[in-house]
Amino acid sequence: MKAITVIPGEKYSADLRDVPIPSINENEVLIRSTQVGICGTDREIHEGLYGTAPKNEQYLILGHESSGVVAKVGKNVSGISIGQRVVRLVRRPCSGCENCNTGMNDMCSTGNFIESGIKELHGSMAEYFKDQSEYLISIPHELCEVSVLLEPLSVVEKAYRQAKEIQQRLSWKPKKALIMGAGPIGILQAMLLRDSGLDVSVVARSLPGNRKSKIIEKIGAQYLSTSLYSLDAILKSVGKVDFVVEASGDSQLAFDAMSAIGNNGVVCLTSITGGEKEITIPADKINLDYVLGNKVAFGTVNANQRDYVQGVRSLERFMNQWPEVLPDMITRRFPLVQFEQAFQLMSDDIKVILKPF
Ligand code: BGC
User: Fold this and answer.
1) What is the CA(90)–ligand 1 centre distance, in A?
2) Which of 36, 135, 285, 342 sits 20 to 30 Å CA-CA off 352?
3) Is the beta carbon of 106 within 6 A of some atom in ligand 1?
């Protein structure tokens, strides 16, 4: 079968390769891959900055934003049948920390977790992939067109769930949120918060009038462009908010975001910034502000199984509420052979996907 592989650590090594169709044991499921999303992490792996091949193998099959149809089921597998649409969980436990032992692989404390398409396990950028049924989430047929958005949505679900868990320290009724970045994470986060009744502002670089700003406006959020106004002016006009999500991919903005939060508020950092940028920050001011305002900033990565389950419900609600928005987020679709084009980001792109079948 065809697969997109990389040699981790090697710059621009992504390649279309012929590899064997995975053979399954009695506890595994073979899935025909129908949609695979490309995200910043895949691009970083392609650039040689991130990623690890499975033990004793030279290459890694990319792809952690999966969606496919069950093609074959091992004889010990129950609850999954041929023809069913599924999405794969990304992270697997380490050999036994207190969190992985209780199904919280997304909170692994050793860092020795495994991630499909990223770290030590082949991903789904291939005609077929296999997995154990416990790592598969069933998707209703009506969602098949947008199911590839479930993985990034699970990250967003986890972010908001954790903010609510952290805020059990007080009585928290968030009304106003600010999101930095209008990529897939920023847009999906905006949808989730709008759906929860918050007043949402999204800060992004591009001038209004593009696909992203139209989507933001369609869901009833406010799109604020740093090409029109300075970030300072934008933050002043929005005023203090209850919840900030940083999803711009720029670590400078993570610190800027920290000044936008009101007393008792929460800042959530989601950007995976692979570089080594250094900046000067007003350390005393930030420290004092966080102490006197009881403010919290936290980082989040990956998602728990329950966030995927919650994500399926959110996809259903989003499709009912804003039927065109999720399909509109998938801006370009390519067969595996055109992977090079798919990896080149265009200015109006939100989510580019590969369609192996
Ligand atoms: C994925 C996460 C993963 C993280 C770090 C992100 O792109 O969405 O599932 O944990 O990369 O590898």
Assistant:
1) 7
2) 135
3) no
d(CA 10, ligand 1 centre) in Å: 20
Residue 307 near residue 315 (C-beta atoms within 8 A):
no
Domains of the chain listed by start with CATH number:
2-138+329-355 (3.90.180.10), 154-299 (3.40.50.720)
Q: Ligand 1 centroid to 16 CA: how many Å?
A: 23
The closest residue, in CA terms, to atom 10 on ligand 1 is 302
**Ligand 1, closest atom to CA 118?**
12
Span 107-157, pLDDT tens digits: 999 999 999 999 999 999 999 999 999 999 999 999 999 999 999 999 999
Distance 112 CA to ligand 1 centre (A): 14
The reply to whether ligand 1 has any atom less than 6 angstroms from the CB of 302 is yes
Answer yes or no: are the C-beta atoms of 127 and 356 closer than 8 Å: yes
Q: Whose CA is nearest to atom 3 of ligand 1?
A: 302
Spatial distance between the Cα atoms of 320 and 327, rounded to a whole number of angstroms: 12
pTM over the 0.90 mark: yes
